[in-house]
Write a structure and sequence with these properties.
Elements: E1 5-7, H1 13-23, H2 34-47, E2 50-55, E3 58-68, H3 70-77, E4 91-99, H4 105-114, E5 120-125, E6 134-138
Parallel strand pairs: 4-5
Antiparallel strand pairs: 1-2, 2-3, 3-4, 5-6
Helix pairs in contact: 1-2
Length: 143
């Protein structure tokens, strides 16, 4: 079996198309509005706030995030306001994650954390069934 490799792709139409094609196959993203999903992925690729896991030249995992402030992220996680970027912020909010295999999740998260060691991390997880969304935060003590 091949090793899982991590990279970020350059911002160009081909990269955006490859990522969109991958994400479009996984719930809940397969049911999202096309325009909003492409806008989110385009922003993440343009800002280099994403990570791709690949095996044998095929995308098998993706995670994308937004750099923001801790206040904005905590308001977003609590469903009290929108998630807006703050490029100089001290937090990230993971907004898109899809994997071919659950075995790719932990290595993908660990690699993404290495790119953001100085930031608190926030995320919500939506489910395709009737379960409520899970909300999580890992706050840096000095952040």
């Amino acid at each position: 079996m091949s090793k899982l490799l991590f990279t970020r792709v350059p911002f160009n139409p081909l990269s955006l198309g490859l990522v969109c094609n991958f994400i479009a196959h996984y719930p809940p993203f397969d049911g999202y509005e096309f325009g909003q999903m492409v806008k989110s992925l385009r922003y993440q690729i343009e800002q280099q706030t994403h990570l791709i896991g690949s095996m044998d030249d095929a995308i098998v995992a993706y995670v994308g995030w937004i750099v923001t402030s801790r206040d904005i992220a905590e308001t977003w996680v609590a469903n009290r306001g929108p998630l807006n970027p703050d490029p100089g912020g001290n937090a990230i909010a993971a907004t898109v994650m899809a994997t071919r295999s659950s075995s790719h999740i932990l290595p993908l998260i660990k690699e993404a954390k290495l790119l953001n060691l100085d930031k608190s991390v926030y995320w919500k997880r939506d489910f395709i069934d009737s379960r409520d969304a899970m909300k999580r935060a890992v706050r840096k003590r000095d952040a």
